[in-house]
Design goal:
about 220 residues, mainly beta, 2,3-Dihydroxybiphenyl 1,2-Dioxygenase, domain 1, eight-stranded mixed beta sheet, globular, five-stranded mixed beta sheet
Length: about 220
């Protein structure tokens, strides 16, 4: 499997996105998730995208359909008890159409009939692990769905991910599968997502803390 996209829980409206834009990232379209109670702002790269996700409707997020995702806890919970990150995977290479970890199918109202998200059986102390059998690279999207990618000479492909968490515990099967797919999990003093681009050939980095628990390397 390979990374499809990554989300970070943020404040309503995602004012944190302005720091990414000031850094030089080109923003794509955002969207809302009817029935799920969330909305986002997104930044697209050749092979994946970064999503800033916020709570738009607490009642929808606490509905019978959405409650099992634990999105409400992530978006409103104590950072000492929940992870603010989510990692979505898609099939890669010869992979089959199902998640390679224990999961259940979530069928939100905003998806077309017949499509579902495979949600991992994992605690909210870990990142949200989920799988889209129908996911695909942004640079391979059909013209009608194509998003603006980063400018020539900018960051192109996500090639590594490192997640730091202050929460200790036994790793789930989904976390183990993510590790086998190249996602590094480490213990530390706070939550941090480090994204490596283009094999980090330039040897440079930019830290968005304290406003956003994100560090980019390229």
């Amino acid at each position: 499997m390979e990374i499809d996209h990554i989300f970070i829980c943020v404040q309503p409206g995602a004012p944190e996105a302005e720091a990414l834009a000031q850094f030089g990232l080109l923003e794509g379209s955002g969207n809302t998730h009817p029935g799920q109670g969330t909305a986002n702002r997104r930044f697209f790269f050749d092979n994946a995208f970064v999503e800033l996700l916020w709570l738009a409707d607490a009642a929808e997020a606490n509905s019978d359909a959405t409650r099992p995702t634990m999105l409400l806890q992530r978006l409103t919970g104590d950072a000492a008890r929940v992870s603010p990150f989510g990692l979505c995977f898609r099939p890669g290479g010869a992979d089959g159409p199902h998640a390679p970890f224990p999961s259940w199918q979530y069928r939100p109202a905003y998806l077309p009939p017949g499509l579902a998200v495979d949600f991992a059986d994992a605690p909210a102390t870990e990142p949200m692990w989920f799988f889209l059998a129908f996911g695909g690279r942004p640079d391979a999207a059909a013209p009608a769905r194509r998003q603006p990618l980063q400018r020539p000479g900018g960051l192109r492909e996500i090639t590594s991910l490192r997640l730091t968490s202050p929460i200790r515990g036994t790793a789930s099967a989904a976390a183990a599968a993510a590790g086998a797919a190249g996602v590094q999990m480490v213990a530390g003093d706070g939550h941090l997502l480090e994204i490596g681009f283009d094999h980090e050939g330039a040897g440079r980095a930019h830290d968005f803390r304290p406003g956003l628990p994100l560090l980019l390397r390229w």
